[in-house]
Design brief:
3 strands; about 35% helix; Nucleotidyltransferase, domain 5; about 90 residues
């Protein structure tokens, strides 16, 4: 599970490293305006829901060099709340 954050948006992908393919993705594009941390938590929950529907229950969290706080932490907490195991 790879996280990318820009100044305005946050993107999450669940990637199969062996085949280099994206299995599931979610982002904050097109979401209603809300605080960035809340948006990140909703993206985490959305990616978890899509992953569970695809049969993925366990992932490795890749924060892409970002510190584990703020929006990155909210994505992880949202994904855990949605049912993913790290």
């Amino acid at each position: 599970m790879s996280v990318f954050r820009s100044n305005k948006q946050i993107y999450v992908q669940i990637i199969n490293d062996e085949t280099a393919t994206t299995l599931v993705a979610a982002s904050s594009l097109g979401m209603e305006p809300m605080p960035k941390k809340e948006q990140a938590a909703k993206v985490g929950e959305a990616v978890a829901k899509k992953a569970l529907e695809a049969g993925i229950t366990e992932v490795v969290f890749d924060r892409n060099g970002y510190l584990y706080h703020g929006r990155v932490k909210e994505v992880a907490d949202g994904a855990r709340k949605g049912g993913l195991k790290f």
